[in-house]
């Protein structure tokens, strides 16, 4: 083993360790390092590593370099585990314990397993699964622990305890705060119960599913619940039944030994996947159902792991514990996974190998952390600020009371305070008075806010889900699954998007065929691929008369090469055939072959071969592939198919081996034998970067003809990529019989090996796929989604960075970027396609310097005239960057200063890593991210981002189910963010600030009263009536406002992306705004208190009595209700009649309450108070003065801020006037012509933005 190999192994090993320690699935490129016999055992001081030699490629000898690598491995593992242990918080640790979660990685428990079939194997767990969080015993402690991990709940819990202390309580030791706290906790608990009951119900449905198990004692099939299955049981699964556990197939109803499964629940793909029985099992062990009850077998296989596409094992027939059959290898093709559904197959028998939480689908289940919006995180900080301010005020007030008592105690003899009373003890005096003031001002932290906010978000979610304009063309309405993130939709600063199926339709159409220096096909859409004799050839958009002439003219010298290329397309693929009867008759001539494929590219290629006269008709149980060569000219609408049946010819080929496509190999190959000539041929297709390296170098690098062919091919592929097409290169290799047989012996030996099997097979496949000869190249188009260009353009204009993460090649990704407006025509593209660490660092520094230089040179230009950049980086470069902190910082520094970033050739894991990297970076800290995708490979990215949006598309519903918001089309993202997101952020921010404001306004008068009462913590309000202040008298106007108010019409907001900057710049919710609202509450309370106190206290009623403190207190309370509700009206833009009705009803509810107490309880303090108030002249004087001094000031201040806001907008329009006028000058329907004048002023801007501001948007609601 040379030094370079050791270095490569060390790098690979470090990557594996990183994946293991993070608990992620090992990427396919490292899957070969995951061997079967690696076990980890933890002791008190160290981690002992067993059988580590399986991690070394050359396991036959242990070199000094290998020993050094061994030590590095042990040290790295210990370091990783130490870091993971330290990073786990106490809260997470307790939560895991309460939920009975094991804190281990699957690698640590992995070891080889052995099963004897038809014997009990109860040493392994049964098939029961549990996804619920609670049970009857654990619900209370676990839920209470979660509830009181919130700082607001902790605050009110402590305040309630203070209310229980006799010397402190002002509620007769009744913890009144526990009533609203209990309501909040009960609502949250009920919500958790409902969600967990759904999980319990789903678990029960899953566990109670019936399946047929082989009873080897009674020699029959017994029906049992799936939860009672154990490893080693044999089960029978019928068509359309779900697979209850991970099974190895041993018998099927199909004579070919195959079956089809739907994996939509597993990987999100809707296409059926083929699974097969190993031929030796079918031919030598289980030929019929009776033998399933009789023959014993022994299965050796790897321990549980989450790798969906990896499985290694072998099977042996035994009798009396003696092996009587040679080992038969097992791999992932023989494995049916839990969560799949059996399709198009009558029945199968399978051996259970993994059960319950050891199945691959359960090991892949990922529960993301609870997401909190940026506003919610700010709210926590505001609560802490208010809490500390409250403590400060209470400390000052208690100190004031102590000073007052010490200076005035000789004048307070009428209070009969004894010398032993707490007033004479400094510590007790300060402590008790501090507690009294804390109780008095406890609503400084508004508990009503938590309830109001949840109700508001719920109504907002209903409006989003029911809006007609959010309905997609395929009939899907949006789904809101995390309404607590509504306001985050208005603050998105970076979007991470998948490409295929998200920006494009994921409907592939064959477009071009390149052969012998000629590109066949047309850039125009073809209409001749639609119908011919009521037949449909899908996925083909091809038109070329020259190509059609070649097909029809046997004398054409090009026909031989064209036919071979078409045979290649019809033979090298993973398409599944199924026959469909066109009518009720059994006429074989009225059967139609349908294709299904896991890859839409394969579907397009096979359909093009059929379109051109080479129709793939399937493969039989002897692995014989049939190709029907015909002259059915699907490209000719006038061709009579019935007169052409005599020209049909069946071509047969024997499939010897199939090398499947993987993200690591980036190619697929088949070895076939032409039964017409007995010639053995290897056919390969894949990415040009892979296939071209494997071409015969003697032909293509050492001859002028070969060099010319490669040069022409690369130029043509470049042209295809420029137009956004997906390209594949086809190649072949002729094999001699002896050459194939020697290779096949090695391959069979490697396939039954339990150790290092994947690496051995990979090396043998790689050896075979060398010295290839070029055949052709193909180009497939993937159409863009509706309005995707306009959507991306508008989102970028809103100030949102756009990252596209795709698996396509670089050139294709760049062109798709241009066509989707991810890359503007004026953008400068910065490319990174380097895998060497130092060169990568130099390149990133070079790009960073270039961006900063451009920024310094264009400081005098406005931001719309400055040169913009787009970064394009490959997955190969990312794999190096993500392991290096310095390179990570450089990448984000460059990417955050580019308007867009395209990452190509990236894996699903890299997608998630990129989002995590951006979120945790210095530049991305505090910025809200959104990830959008439509497939199962996007789920981790979606759950990692602050906001995840799933598209209900062709690749299943897994992305939509795992997302926070699900929409039907990408274009709806524009409305979701620019209208719903912006408005939810604005309204929810004001709702939070308003709740703080109204509580400050209602509580500060009691602080002012302290100046008149020696800071004795006297309550100016009735303690019971005051409880309804937040619950009823001021609760509903703000809720209606937050659910329905519109600052501007949705049409204007969607077409004016710069208005979205209010959320990005955090205009409505920041500390400055908080202190403004806080000061307004303080100012209003000053006006209310001093006007009421000194106008009422200095006057007399008609009976000569001065108003007492109860009278004044109720006057102040009434004024706070009036002003608090009018404050909502000031901030309301949309005038709804129902809104005013709610305002009136809120005030009337207080009047009814006051009138009821006024006449009911004679002994109550409020008896006859309301009657005295309404006849007191100075009461009306107080109302007029207070409303004038507060509401008029607020309205003026609000109008001034509104003016400044529109002034800022007009400045923005003035900067962009030339650019926008050019873009919209031909738009006769534009509503913004006024805004694009040379010098629009603030009044013009405001008038134009409001000219369409009517209630028409209500028509868009269901």
TrEMBL record:
Matches recorded under Pfam families: Cation_ATPase (PF13246), E1-E2_ATPase (PF00122), PhoLip_ATPase_C (PF16212), PhoLip_ATPase_N (PF16209)
Main localisation: membrane
Compartmental location: Endomembrane system; Membrane
Residue stretches making up the P-type ATPase A domain: 219-292
Keywords: ATP-binding, Hydrolase, Magnesium, Membrane, Metal-binding, Nucleotide-binding, Translocase, Transmembrane, Transmembrane helix
Uppermost EC category: translocase
Segments forming domain P-type ATPase N-terminal: 116-176
Domain P-type ATPase C-terminal: 960-1205
Catalytic residues identified in the record: 498
Highest rank taxon of the organism: Eukaryota
Protein name: Phospholipid-transporting ATPase
Protein source organism: Ichthyophthirius multifiliis (White spot disease agent)
Lineage: Eukaryota, Sar, Alveolata, Ciliophora, Intramacronucleata
């Amino acid at each position: 083993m040379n030094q370079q190999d050791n270095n490569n192994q060390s790098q690979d090993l470090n990557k594996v360790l990183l994946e293991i320690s993070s608990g992620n699935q090992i990427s396919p490129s490292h899957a070969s390092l995951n061997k079967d016999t690696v076990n980890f055992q933890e002791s008190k001081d160290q981690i002992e590593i067993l059988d580590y030699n399986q991690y070394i490629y050359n396991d036959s000898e242990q070199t000094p370099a290998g020993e050094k690598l061994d030590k590095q491995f042990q040290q790295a593992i210990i370091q990783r585990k130490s870091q993971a242990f330290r990073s786990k918080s106490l809260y997470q640790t307790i939560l895991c314990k309460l939920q009975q979660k094991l804190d281990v990685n699957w690698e640590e428990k992995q070891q080889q397993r052995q099963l004897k079939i038809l014997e009990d194997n109860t040493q392994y767990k049964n098939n029961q699964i549990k996804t619920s969080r609670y049970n009857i015993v654990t619900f209370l402690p676990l839920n209470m622990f979660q509830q009181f991990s919130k700082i607001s709940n902790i605050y009110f819990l402590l305040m309630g305890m203070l209310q229980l202390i006799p010397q402190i309580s002002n509620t007769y030791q009744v913890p009144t705060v526990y009533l609203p706290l209990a309501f909040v906790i009960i609502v949250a608990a009920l919500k958790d119960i409902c969600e967990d009951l759904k999980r319990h119900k789903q678990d029960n449905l899953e566990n109670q599913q019936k399946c047929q198990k082989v009873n080897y004692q009674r020699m029959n099939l017994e029906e049992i619940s799936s939860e009672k299955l154990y490893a080693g049981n044999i089960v029978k699964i019928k068509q359309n039944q779900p697979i209850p556990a991970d099974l190895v197939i041993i018998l099927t109803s199909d004579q070919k030994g195959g079956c089809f499964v739907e994996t939509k629940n597993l990987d999100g793909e809707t296409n059926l996947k083929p699974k097969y029985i190993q031929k030796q099992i079918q031919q030598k062990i289980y030929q019929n159902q009776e033998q399933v009850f009789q023959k014993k077998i022994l299965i050796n296989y790897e321990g549980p792991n989450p790798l969906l596409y990896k499985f290694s094992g072998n099977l042996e027939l035994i009798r009396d514990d003696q092996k009587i059959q040679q080992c038969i290898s097992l791999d992932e093709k023989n494995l049916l996974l839990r969560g799949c559904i059996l399709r198009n197959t009558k029945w199968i028998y399978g051996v259970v190998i993994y059960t319950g939480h050891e199945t691959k689908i359960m090991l892949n289940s990922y529960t993301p952390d609870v997401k909190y919006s940026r506003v919610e995180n700010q709210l926590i900080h505001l609560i802490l600020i208010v809490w500390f301010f409250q403590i400060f005020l209470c400390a000052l007030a208690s100190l004031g009371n102590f000073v007052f008592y010490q200076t005035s105690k000789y004048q307070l003899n009428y209070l009969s305070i004894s010398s032993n009373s707490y007033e004479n003890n400094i510590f007790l005096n300060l402590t008790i008075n501090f507690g009294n003031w804390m109780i008095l001002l406890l609503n400084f932290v508004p508990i009503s806010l938590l309830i109001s906010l949840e109700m508001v978000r719920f109504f907002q979610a209903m409006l989003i889900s029911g809006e007609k304009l959010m309905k997609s063309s395929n009939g899907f309405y949006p789904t809101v699954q995390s309404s607590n993130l509504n306001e985050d939709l208005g603050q998105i600063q970076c979007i991470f998007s998948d490409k295929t199926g998200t920006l494009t339709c994921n409907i592939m159409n064959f477009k071009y065929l390149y052969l012998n220096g000629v590109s066949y096909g047309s850039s125009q859409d073809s209409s001749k691929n639609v119908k011919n004799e009521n037949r449909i050839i899908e996925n083909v958009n091809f038109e070329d008369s020259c190509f059609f002439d070649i097909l029809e003219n046997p004398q054409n010298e090009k026909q031989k090469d064209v036919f071979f290329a078409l045979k290649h397309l019809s033979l090298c693929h993973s398409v599944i055939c199924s026959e469909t009867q066109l009518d009720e008759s059994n006429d074989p001539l009225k059967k139609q072959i349908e294709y299904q494929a896991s890859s839409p590219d394969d579907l397009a290629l096979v359909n093009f071969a059929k379109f051109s006269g080479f129709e793939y008709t399937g493969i039989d149980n002897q692995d014989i592939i049939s190709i029907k060569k015909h002259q059915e000219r699907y490209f000719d609408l006038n061709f009579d198919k019935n007169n052409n049946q005599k020209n049909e010819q069946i071509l047969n080929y024997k499939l010897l081996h199939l090398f499947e496509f993987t993200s690591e190999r980036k190619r697929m190959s088949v070895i076939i034998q032409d039964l017409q000539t007995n010639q053995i041929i290897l056919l390969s297709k894949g990415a040009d970067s892979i296939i071209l390296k494997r071409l015969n170098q003697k032909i293509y690098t050492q001859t002028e003809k070969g060099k010319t062919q490669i040069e022409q091919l690369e130029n043509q592929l470049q042209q295809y990529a420029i137009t956004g097409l997906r390209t594949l290169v086809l190649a072949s290799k002729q094999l001699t019989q002896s050459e194939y047989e020697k290779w096949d012996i090695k391959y069979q030996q490697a396939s039954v090996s339990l150790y290092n099997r994947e690496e051995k097979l990979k090396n043998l496949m790689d050896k075979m796929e060398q010295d290839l000869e070029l055949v052709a190249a193909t180009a497939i188009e993937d159409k863009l989604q509706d309005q995707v260009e306009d959507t991306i353009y508008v989102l970028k204009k809103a100030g949102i960075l756009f990252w596209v993460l795709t698996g396509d090649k670089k050139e294709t990704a760049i062109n798709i970027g241009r066509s989707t407006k991810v890359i503007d025509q004026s953008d400068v593209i910065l490319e990174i396609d380097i895998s060497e660490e130092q060169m990568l660092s130099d390149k990133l520094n070079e790009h960073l310097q270039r961006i900063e230089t451009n920024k310094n040179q264009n400081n005098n230009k406005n931001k719309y005239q400055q040169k913009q950049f787009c970064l394009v980086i490959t997955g190969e470069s990312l794999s190096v960057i993500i392991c290096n902190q310095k390179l990570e910082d450089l990448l984000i520094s460059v990417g955050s200063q580019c308007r867009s970033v395209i990452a190509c050739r990236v894996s699903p894991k890299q997608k998630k890593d990129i989002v995590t990297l951006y979120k945790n970076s210095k530049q991305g800290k505090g910025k809200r991210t959104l990830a959008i995708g439509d497939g199962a490979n996007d789920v981790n990215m979606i759950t990692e981002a602050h906001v995840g949006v799933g598209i209900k598309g062709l690749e299943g519903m897994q992305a939509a189910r795992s997302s926070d918001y699900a929409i039907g089309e990408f274009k709806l993202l524009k409305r979701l963010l620019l209208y719903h997101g912006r408005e939810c952020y604005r309204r929810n921010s004001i709702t939070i600030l308003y709740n703080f404001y109204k509580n400050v306004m209602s509580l500060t008068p009691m602080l002012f009263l302290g100046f008149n009462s020696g800071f004795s913590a006297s309550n100016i309000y009735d303690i019971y009536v005051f409880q309804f202040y937040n619950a009823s008298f001021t609760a509903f106007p703000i809720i209606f406002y937050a659910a329905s108010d519109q600052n501007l019409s949705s049409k204007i907001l969607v077409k004016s992306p710069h208005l979205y900057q209010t959320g990005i710049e955090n205009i409505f919710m920041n500390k400055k705004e908080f202190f403004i609202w806080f000061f307004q509450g303080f100012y209003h309370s000053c006006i209310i208190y001093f006007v009421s106190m000194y106008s009422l206290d200095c006057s007399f009623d008609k009976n000569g009595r001065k108003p007492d403190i109860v009278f004044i207190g109720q006057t102040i309370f009434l004024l706070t209700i009036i002003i608090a509700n009018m404050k909502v009206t000031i901030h309301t833009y949309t005038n709804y009649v129902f809104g005013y009705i709610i305002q009136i009803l809120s005030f009337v509810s207080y009047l009814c309450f006051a009138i009821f107490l006024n006449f009911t309880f004679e002994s109550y303090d409020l008896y006859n108070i309301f009657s005295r108030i309404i006849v007191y002249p100075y009461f009306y004087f107080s109302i007029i003065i207070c409303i004038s001094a507060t509401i008029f000031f607020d309205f003026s201040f609000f109008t001034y801020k509104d003016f400044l806001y529109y002034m800022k907008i007009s400045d923005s329009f003035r900067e962009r006037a030339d650019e926008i006028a050019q873009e919209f000058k031909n738009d006769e329907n534009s509503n913004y012509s006024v805004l694009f004048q040379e010098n629009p002023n603030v009044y013009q801007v405001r008038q134009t933005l409001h000219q369409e501001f009517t209630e028409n948007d209500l028509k868009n609601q269901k």
